[in-house]
């Protein structure tokens, strides 16, 4: 693979790029991007093509996407146990959803590259002091000091290394014993027996048990399912990083982002005339776009024209994040217009970003019931229009944090301070994530 722009000028220069850091030293940034251009790809074009095939099945209504991970990964959390617990939680959720929906679940982590954050304000004020806002470990430090908040381009190299390490763990765990279906199911059984809402989940856990015994008796597995296909994704926010890791695939001659299998454009950077849409239109990976309540059907149709001009199933995923109170009203016109245009996109529900509220303690939080209700609304809309509710995109961790309120092991507002560890948005903890999978499983299937 060769770099995509070694012989040409920066093809994005003519387009305004929103949400880019104010790097203090351009020559230091150039040195970093030149180094990134020499480094090996994190993912390969054929893996990206495989994910595109899997997402084409989602777009056709034959598969379901489960995408999730931290709002913002941090360099400190690049640890074996943290990564393993995130992966096992996602695989546990996937088993429940696969059984309930009777279709393959495509598993995509929000990890191994989710280090840059778009922000609604450029500064943060605390006790009268104003500093540049934290933009993710890829850019600056979380500590509230002037020194830590200055953007430092060498962090892009640390981001690359952190992504390499995380991806190595993910590749090992998803190929090994941790990904064994029986093992994952046993973890779900432990969850069900310890959960205050366990009685509600028991029948599906029993059914999965019987299905596994049946597979075993027929000699068709579950040992056959010892490895899990797992992909990685992040918001493609920092164009200096993404373009430096864009390579032309030697067999197809096409450029691919090699920082992750799937990249998405965030709600704040989907401007049709901006640099993000232009960059995404040039790469050959599967791509996604977040759509908030301000998205009009006209802008969505134009995004489809720019990002999926060939109407290639699997190329484009639309991640809707309207809020529980708005999804039933705002989603139907979008789905109707997109369907009428003939485009075959995958529709996915992000039930997190439209449901952020401030707790009495001042913590940013989300109510578990709002998260579930937005997913319910998303399913209702698709069922009433005859389209496919293609998946969910969640912010979660495998740890026992207290960041979102509610769930079977209920987290109360008063609990938020005890283990609030996110440096950005509140995540579902491990048991809330599993609650969600069992409850969403009730919307799936016949
Ligand atoms: C996010 O996914 O963390 C995020 C910032 O989402 P959005 O672009 O939808 O606001
Ligand atoms: Mn977030």
Automatic annotation (TrEMBL):
**Could you say which residues bind Mn(2+) here?**
71, 353, 395, 425
> Residue ranges of region Disordered?
1-24
Write out the pathway annotation from the protein's UniProt entry.
Metabolic intermediate biosynthesis; chorismate biosynthesis; chorismate from D-erythrose 4-phosphate and phosphoenolpyruvate: step 1/7
Sorted alphabetically, which InterPro entries does this protein's record hold?
A: Aldolase_TIM (IPR013785), DAHP_synth_2 (IPR002480)
Q: Which family does it belong to?
A: Belongs to the class-II DAHP synthase family.
**Which NCBIfam families does this one have?**
DAHP_synth_II
Q: What is this protein called?
A: Phospho-2-dehydro-3-deoxyheptonate aldolase
Source organism per UniProt: Streptomyces liliiviolaceus
Its taxonomic path starts at:
Bacteria, Bacillati, Actinomycetota, Actinomycetes, Kitasatosporales
């Amino acid at each position: 693979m060769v770099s995509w722009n070694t012989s040409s000028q920066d093809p994005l220069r003519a387009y305004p790029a929103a949400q880019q850091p104010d790097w203090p030293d351009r020559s230091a940034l150039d040195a970093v991007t030149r180094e990134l251009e020499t480094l090996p790809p994190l993912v390969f074009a054929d893996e990206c093509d495989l994910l595109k095939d899997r997402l084409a099945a989602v777009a056709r209504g034959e598969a379901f996407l489960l995408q999730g991970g931290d709002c913002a990964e941090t360099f400190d959390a690049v640890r074996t146990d943290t990564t393993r617990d995130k992966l096992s939680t996602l695989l546990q959720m996937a088993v429940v959803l696969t059984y309930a929906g009777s279709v393959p679940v495509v598993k995509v982590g929000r990890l191994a590259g989710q280090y840059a954050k778009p922000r609604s304000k450029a500064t943060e004020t605390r006790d009268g002091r104003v500093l540049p806002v934290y933009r993710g470990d890829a850019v600056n430090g979380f500590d509230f000091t002037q020194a830590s908040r200055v953007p430092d381009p060498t962090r892009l190299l640390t981001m690359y290394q952190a992504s390499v390490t995380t991806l190595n763990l993910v590749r090992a765990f998803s190929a090994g014993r941790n990904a064994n279906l029986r093992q994952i199911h046993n973890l779900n059984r432990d969850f069900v027996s310890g959960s205050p809402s366990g009685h509600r989940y028991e029948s599906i856990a029993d059914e999965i048990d019987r299905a596994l015994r049946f597979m075993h008796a027929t000699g068709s597995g579950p040992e056959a399912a010892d490895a899990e296909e797992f992909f990685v994704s992040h918001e493609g926010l920092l164009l200096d990083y993404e373009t430096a890791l864009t390579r032309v695939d030697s067999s197809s001659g096409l450029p691919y982002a090699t920082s992750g299998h799937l990249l998405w454009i965030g709600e704040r950077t989907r401007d049709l005339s901006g640099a993000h849409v232009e960059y995404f239109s040039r790469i050959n990976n599967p791509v996604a776009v977040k759509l908030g309540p301000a998205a009009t059907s006209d802008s969505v149709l134009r995004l489809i024209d720019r990002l999926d001009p060939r109407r290639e199933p699997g190329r484009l995923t639309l991640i809707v994040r309207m809020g529980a109170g708005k999804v039933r009203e705002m989603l139907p016109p979008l789905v109707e217009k997109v369907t009428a245009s003939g485009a075959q996109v995958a529709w996915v529900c992000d039930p997190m970003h439209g449901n952020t509220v401030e707790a009495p303690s001042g913590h940013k939080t989300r109510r578990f019931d709002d998260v579930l209700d937005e997913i319910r609304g998303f399913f209702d809309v698709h069922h009433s229009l005859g389209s496919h509710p293609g998946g969910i995109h969640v912010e979660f961790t495998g740890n026992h944090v207290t960041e979102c309120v509610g769930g079977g092991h209920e987290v109360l507002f008063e609990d938020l301070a005890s283990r609030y560890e996110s440096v950005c948005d509140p995540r579902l903890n491990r048991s809330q994530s599993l609650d969600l999978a069992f409850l969403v499983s009730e919307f799936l299937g016949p």
